[in-house]
Amino acid sequence: MTEFVSPEAMADMIPSGVKLGLAPDGSGSCPAMIRFLIERGIRDLHVVCAPIGGMQVDMLIGAGAVSVLETSAVSLGEAGGAPCFGRAIRNGEIRMLDATCPAVFAGLSAAEKGVPFMPIRGIIGSDVLKNHPNWKVTTNPFDESEKIVVVSAIQPDITLIHAPEADRFGNVRLGRRREVMLLAHASKKTFVTVERISETSLLDDEKLAAGVLPAMYVSAVAEYKGAAWPTGLYAEYEVDAGEVENYARAARTPEGFLAYITGTRSAA
Amino acid sequence: MTEFVSPEAMADMIPSGVKLGLAPDGSGSCPAMIRFLIERGIRDLHVVCAPIGGMQVDMLIGAGAVSVLETSAVSLGEAGGAPCFGRAIRNGEIRMLDATCPAVFAGLSAAEKGVPFMPIRGIIGSDVLKNHPNWKVTTNPFDESEKIVVVSAIQPDITLIHAPEADRFGNVRLGRRREVMLLAHASKKTFVTVERISETSLLDDEKLAAGVLPAMYVSAVAEYKGAAWPTGLYAEYEVDAGEVENYARAARTPEGFLAYITGTRSAA
Amino acid sequence: MTTECTNRELLIYTISRLLDGVEHVAVGMSSPMPAAGAMLLRALNKKQGLGDVQVSILGSVRHNSFTSGSEELFDCAAQGRIGAFFLGGGQIDGKGNVNLVGAGGYPNSPVRWPGSYGSAYLYFLVPRVILFREEHSPRVLVDQVDFISAPGATEDGVYRRGGPHALLTNAAMFSFQRDTGRFRLESVHPGRSAADIREMTGFSFDNDRCEVETPGPDAEILALMRGQIRSELAETYPQFAASLPEAA
Amino acid sequence: MTTECTNRELLIYTISRLLDGVEHVAVGMSSPMPAAGAMLLRALNKKQGLGDVQVSILGSVRHNSFTSGSEELFDCAAQGRIGAFFLGGGQIDGKGNVNLVGAGGYPNSPVRWPGSYGSAYLYFLVPRVILFREEHSPRVLVDQVDFISAPGATEDGVYRRGGPHALLTNAAMFSFQRDTGRFRLESVHPGRSAADIREMTGFSFDNDRCEVETPGPDAEILALMRGQIRSELAETYPQFAASLPEAA
After folding, report:
1. Which three-class secondary structure state does DSSP give residue D149?
2. How crowded is residue D233: how many other Cβ atoms within 10 Å of its Cβ?
3. Is the dihedral of CA B87, B88, B89, B92 positive or negative?
4. pLDDT tens digits, residue range C15-64?
5. Are B83 and B251 within 8 A, CB to CB?
6. Model confidence at B268: pLDDT above 50
7. Which sign, positive or negative, has the C-alpha torsion B134, B137, B138, B143?
8. Closest CA to A153 of A31, A38, A48
9. Which residues are paired to B163 by β-bridges?
10. B80, CA 20 to 30 Å: which among A136, B105, C159, C211?
């Protein structure tokens, strides 16, 4: 069921126009694959960040690949604001669906559980609510005096993540990054690049199993060591802060961004 | 924050009248603690099974300790029907809240997420729905033509479970039995008996962490080897099928139940 | 050509036929025959170079890849990742309603069964639900169940993509016709007649003079069942596997 | 007796005072001062034999016991297991509204910040939210935010058990009065006057002639900060810890 492919072949499997789920920088982000998508001229993506975006999202925006962005924040962390994101917002180049982290999770949970919506507390009175087309205020069916927000399900067509390890059967170890598990459960297809491939089943080890995404959710796996560089991979390697700063500096102008994206060494 | 106590002291911390969350037989059940509760004459429990009950629930019912039972099923598995449960139903001795497994999980998820209700597909047209006081049919706020069930939150006062291992800090390893994690997240307090206590933190091992219930949910831990006997403990020891059959036979009559519960060896 | 087989083997083979084309079969706890049927489908598909079949056996560690607790089965079904599931029932009626709760009144049922489990949900969300109950009698196959754990049909305006696909007993096999909400007798097991089935069934059904005999496995398939499937089963259901005929 | 301390130390000490009585403090990513304040509270409680304080630092592996992904913080807050949290803000207004999105229009904000993160939610569910922003200027502390990421007050009929508790800047400390929905100046940091604060603040507030000076730590607490807290911080924020004064 799970295909084993090269990173390049995986990039070819992600067409323009899809709703693309991405993990936060450092918790399953895969900038190396984002480069491949950009090289292939991918366009018109609806990007869903679970629940925030960083360098990989900024790169996609800078390349003009994003038409809709659904996220609770985009930031380069210590390296400051995301330059292509800020520019695209100012110039009205992307349609922004500003969210709040737990509402993104609620929308993904709705897709995970196959229901059309989820209720969530808070949010009422914010401009986030006023501007979000997929959220509504309703009443608690068990207490008509309580107003409560409902968010509609978020189901990415494809989720693209990087993880420490997969096995030959297509099971993928995510560890305690359960938000990535949620994202995969919620998505129609999940593509995973990994640092390494285990020949024995990750499910055979009871200690590991709770952090393993089963193969039935995993459409394809590609071995791609270091593909989370420079954003880092939880419990494997740290962010390369200097490189993210290089990016932040370069991307201040469209020309600088272009030079960075075509010039810098990739993870390969 | 987590207290370390003896099993007997833990039993003393569970008063009559509470809403008590229990795991299924073999996935976190703790019949040895149930014996202590019965010895102490506990009464008037509202038992929530997550999502089904077995021998430990049947024992509580047989002892007259249960006033309300919220579950999707009660069964002794291979050993057949639960005799005290069947008798109590016939005699109208317990108030039964018949549920369906995913609706119990939806109610616990609502408590976990701090919302008053959760929507769930299916169920409409069943007598389970007609007879359940805490479920309602409402409309999908995003599509008024769709009817959908909402279930109200289920928040146990105390959850009592058995697990393979805790550490000195109160973290508890549950492994892939995530329904037990959900139950603990949803409950006000969780009491855990364990096979063994680790002197090093279970959270230090990234491979284990995804299956660990953090100490902040764990009010008390008691070391109690074999406390899941005879129902078994997932990935540790199997059900003692012969003993469950002994129980099933004995519990066919109230007298037999009484003889069993006062006579048989306990796990200790 | 049909070779002689036991009634259990006929049922297992029939289950595999009812699962034809399904990619992921979920099997409940203590359900060795459905598990065997699913394993047979998997083996046959492999032999014929068809797509992989995933079999998830609840309660098994080895044949169960779920890692998110027992709620994952239900989420997975809602996501459309499960093609077929099995339901039994203390009572099953002619409209496809299933009763797993009790007979003779509610809530203080004189006859009480364990409860509805996930039926009220999975019956709506799993495309192909196979009703499997070996006992074929008017006591089980009733005109109207005493309690509806899961309804066979649903009013408009309620999301439903799944439901009853077939009813298999130790005497016959019925299909369920969603348009009319009725069962249709598709075949009668060897040694029974349509008249027997009418007498043994507490509800009326279509094609009640059916003369088709339920086909059994050919020699090659029977050899597969008595060899590979029997060994695979033994891992999860050792007693049941031991009760099946062994390859010569 | 107050000993001489740096402005940062004053802020850290003030944060610890604002957290008094809280059992579980959650601290966002890249928030070394709130983390330091929470660690100080934990150390002081321990010294005084008071209850344990749990400090969860998001983004830290060591000081973060969550095991269910980043949604667990939000669930945990909803369950009432988190007593205090910190919010910054590109703009904060006199009604306690917080803007983390952008200034000068929406959606095409000329000045765009990262986004609302969890603020629109946590502000309702965490009892004590401390607004912490070092810059104290009319640019940040505005009369009316351009975009409400999270509102300071809420209409009836909406569940809310949390909200703004205090606003701390590098010049002053305000409490938030939920009944009137306004800030009240509680103390002015050494070297500033109430008149300064009025001028530096873009919104009107109560007690605007306040003469209380923000108290600093005594010698014992300062020693604790410069020793134990500094080392604890160094694990997660090595650069920040290095910038703090060291024990003599």
Report:
1. coil
2. 22
3. positive
4. 999 999 999 999 987 789 999 999 999 999 999 998 889 999 887 777 78
5. yes
6. no
7. positive
8. A48
9. B194
10. B105
Output the CA angle B128-B129-B130, nearest 5 degrees.
95
HEC readout, C58-113: CCCCCCCCCCCCCHHHHHHHHCCCCCEEEECCCEEECCCCEECCEECCCCCCCEEC
| Contact (Cβ atoms closer than 8 angstroms) between residue D24 and residue D52 | no
* C218 three-state secondary structure: coil
C-alpha to C-alpha distance for B134 and B48, rounded to whole angstroms: 13
Do C and D touch (≥3 CB pairs < 8 Å)? no
Residue A267 lies in a domain: no
CATH number (domain holding residue A26):
3.40.1080.10
Contacts for D94 with CB less than 8 Å, ≥ 6 apart: D141, D143, D144, D182, D183, D202, D203, D204, D205
Q: Do B120 and A115 make contact, defined as CB atoms within 8 angstroms?
A: yes
Q: Full-prediction pTM beyond 0.95?
A: yes
Cα B39 to Cα B57: distance, rounded to the nearest angstrom: 15
Q: Which of B111, B92, B78 is nearest to B189 (CA)?
A: B111
Q: Which of A112, A213, A217 to mutate to test the interface with C (most CBs of C within 10 A)?
A: A112
Task: Name the amino acid, one letter, at B65.
Answer: A
Same domain, B249 and B131: no
What is the complex's ipTM, to 2 decimals?
Answer: 0.96
> What domains are there in chain D, each with its CATH number?
7-243 (3.40.1080.10)
Q: How far apart are CA C38 and CA C46, in angstroms?
A: 12
Chain B contacts of D74, Cβ < 8 Å? 113
- Residue C1 confidence class, pLDDT cut points 50, 70, 90: very low
- For B203, the token pair is 């959270």
Tell me: the pLDDT tens digits for A79-105? 999 999 999 999 999 999 999 999 999
CB distance A184 to A112 below 8 Å:
no
Q: Are residues A97 and A129 in the same domain?
A: no
Q: Which residues, at least 6 apart from A67, have a Cβ–Cβ distance to it below 8 Å?
A: A43, A44, A45, A46, A94, A95
B58 interaction partners in chain C (CB closer than 8 Å): none
CA angle A85–A241–A195, rounded 5-degree value: 95
The CA radius of gyration of chain C, in Å to the nearest whole number, is 18
| Best mutation target, B3, B112, B115, B171, to test chain D (most D CBs within 10 A) | B112
Say which residues have a Cβ less than 8 Å from residue A60's Cβ, sequence separation at least 6. Answer: A34, A37, A38, A42, A45, A47, A66
Neighbouring residues of D239: CB distance < 8 A, sequence distance ≥ 6: none
